Amino acid sequence: MSNILVLLESPSKIDKIKHFLEDNFPENNYEVMASGGHINKISDSGPWALGIDFETVTPKFTVDKLKKKNVAEIVKAGKNADEIILASDPDREGEAIAWHLSNLFIKDKKVIKRATFNEITEAAVVKAFREMRDIDQNLVNAQLSRQMLDKIIGYLVSNSLQKGTGLLSAGRVQTPALNILVQRDKIIKTFKEIIYKKIFVIDSKRNINLTLHRDDNNLIVNTEKTYFVSEEQANNILKNLSSKFKCESYKSKPFEVRSFKPFSTASLLQDGFSKLRMSASQITVASQKLYEAGLITYIRTDSNKFSTEFTAEAKDFINKNFKNGLFKDAVPVKTQANAQEAHEAIRPTNLDQRPDNIETIVDDKNAARLYNLIWWNTIKSLMKGPSGYYHNWSFWNNGYEFKQSWKETLDQGYNGLKANDTDENIELDENGDEIQEIDIDKPAFEMNSNFSIDISKDLIIMEEAKTSPPRMFNQASLIKELKELGIGRPSTYSPTLTKLKEREYAIPHRGKPFEVTEKGYEAERFLYDKYPEFFNLNYTANMEEKLDEIAEGKFDYKHWLSDLYKELSESVKQVIQNSKTSDIPCPRCGEGSLVFIKSKFNRGRGCSNFTVTKCGYREYEQPDGTWKEYVSVVKEDSVEKKEFKNSKKRNNVKAKK
C-alpha cells in the first residue's frame, strides 16, 4: 500500500476529496492537506522593495508568515509519502501554488504529480487522479510574470503617487479602471441637455401608435447625427400634416429572444449585481462556497460554453422535467481574442440538485440565492426563448415618414414556465436593463403595404423630451467594460473594485452607479499626467495578451519585464525628484516647504527640511478635507514611568559601587 500526500488549496475540500479517493483507490493510503492558497510571496527586499533580481529577472520568495506552521506540517507529512499529488485549483494561480509546494520537496526527490478538476464531484476527481500530469511550467511562468509585473508597476508608481499627492496606490488594472470611471464622470458632469419635441399619432381604439421618423427632407429626426426637433419646427410639422397616412412599406421577420447565456466569471458578476443586488465581493465569496461544496463548476473562467457531455445531460433533464420540447442548444457567444477558455462556463455540477433543496449543503443566504441564479440561468440558456414575428409598417404623410412596430409572440418558450419561488425570473437586455414584456394588441393595419388609413389630426400629439448623458458605470457595467477592453482577468475583477473602494477613489454604492471622489480625480490626474503610456487602455490590454503568450510558451518574459522596469524606474525617479519641493511654506520653521510623507492614516505632510534642521512639523488631512497639525499626546503616567526607570538606573549604579 502506497502512502500518498494530496495537497489542496482550501481546507473545506479535504473531507470530500479524501472520501472520493478512499472509495475509488482503496489500494492506497491517502493523507489530504490544504495549503490555504499561496504559501509564498515575493519579498519586499532590494531596489524599490520589489524583491526581484533584474540580472536574471527572477523573484525572491519568502514563506508567508501566516503559513509557516502550515508549511512545516506539509513538509513533515511529505517525509513519509511515497508520492505527492498537487491538486490546487485549475488555473494559473493554482499552477503556481502547485509549483511552490513542489519546491518544498526538491531535496527529498519525491514523485510529484499534478491533478486538476473543474468540479468537486466524484466522477471529476476520480478522472483527474487517473489522468495526472506534470506541472505546466509555462502556466507557472505566466503567473510569476503577472506577479512581477503587478509589483513593478504597483510599487514604483504608487511610490511616486504617494510622494506627489499623498495618495496610497496605483495598479496595472486598478488605474485604467479608475480612468474609465473618471472619464465617464467628466462626460456626465459637462453634459448639456437638449430639450426637443417628439411627434406621435395615437389612436388607442385601433391600437395605433405612430412615431415621426423622417422629416420632409428625408432626414431622420431627433438623433445626434441629424438634429433634434424644436418647438417651432414641431408646430410647423403639425401644420403640414393631413389626416391621411399611406403605408408604403411593410416588413415581417421572425425573432427569438435568448437573453440567458452560460455564465463566465464576468457575466456572473454582472447578473449577480443587476438581479440580486449583490456586490462583486459578495458574489465572489458566495460562488467560492458553492464551488467548494461541490455544487457548481470552477468559478474563474472566461468561457461561455458548456461541455458536450453536460449539454447532453441537460437535454435529458429538460425533456424529462419540462413540457413542450423546450430544449435548445445554448446561444454561441463570440469569443474574445484574449479570453482564457481552459474551463467550462459556470454551471451546476448536477441539475438534479435543485435550488429549493440545497439548505442542507449550504446554509449561507447569499450562496443559496446565487445558486438559484446559476441553476435557472443554466436551464434557461438551454431552452427556447419567446419567439414569433416583428411586424413593421412605414407610413407617409405629406413627405413625413411615421413608423409603427408590433411584436407578435407565438411561442412563450421559457417565459411559459410555471412560476417558481426560487427563480429570480428577471431577464436583462444587452445594456443590463430589465426586459419588460408588454402585451400590445395587433394594430388595425393590413399585413402588407400600399394601403391608406385616415386618422383625425386631433390624435396627433406633440410631447417634450430631453437628451440624457451616458449612464455612470456600476459594478456590473464596469466589469463588462473591462472585459470588452481586454483589461484584467476573471481573478482580477473583484479585487480591482475592492481596491478602488478601499483607496476611496470610487465608491460602489449598493445596487447603484459608482461615485467618483475627489481623491479619485486627483489620483487619475497625476497618474495619466506622469505615466500616460503605461496606463493607456490599449497598452494595458496588450500586457494581458503578452501574459497569454507566456502561458503558451511563445514569449520571452524576462527581456520584456527587464526593459519595462528600466523604463518605468527612470520615469518614477524623475517624478519623485520633482515632488520633493512644493509652494506651501512650513508653518513652524518657515524655511522648508510642506511635502507629502508616508502615513498609515490619512494623507500626511511634513517639513522638507527635516533632515537638515530637524523641523518635525507634521499635519494630516481630516475627513472634511482640511489639514490639522499633529501633536503627540503625552500619557499621564509617562513622566512617572520615566522617573521610575531613571531611579532604578541610579540604584543599580550605587549597588555596583
Number of strands: 21
Helix percent band = 25-40%
Query: How many DSSP H or I helices?
Result: 18
Structural Rg: 32 Å
Question: What is the CATH superfamily label of the largest domain?
Answer: Topoisomerase I, domain 2
Spatial order of strands in the largest sheet: 14-11-12-13-10-9-15
**Could you say how many structural domains there are in total?**
5
Coarse morphology: flat
Q: What CATH first level of the largest domain would be assigned?
A: Mainly Alpha
CATH architecture of the largest domain: Orthogonal Bundle
Mean pLDDT: 91
If you consult CATH, what is the topology of the largest domain? Answer: Topoisomerase I, domain 2
Low-confidence stretches: 337-341
Sheet with the most strands, sense and barrel status:
7 strands, antiparallel
Percentage of residues in DSSP E strands: 15-25%
- What structural class do the secondary elements suggest? alpha+beta
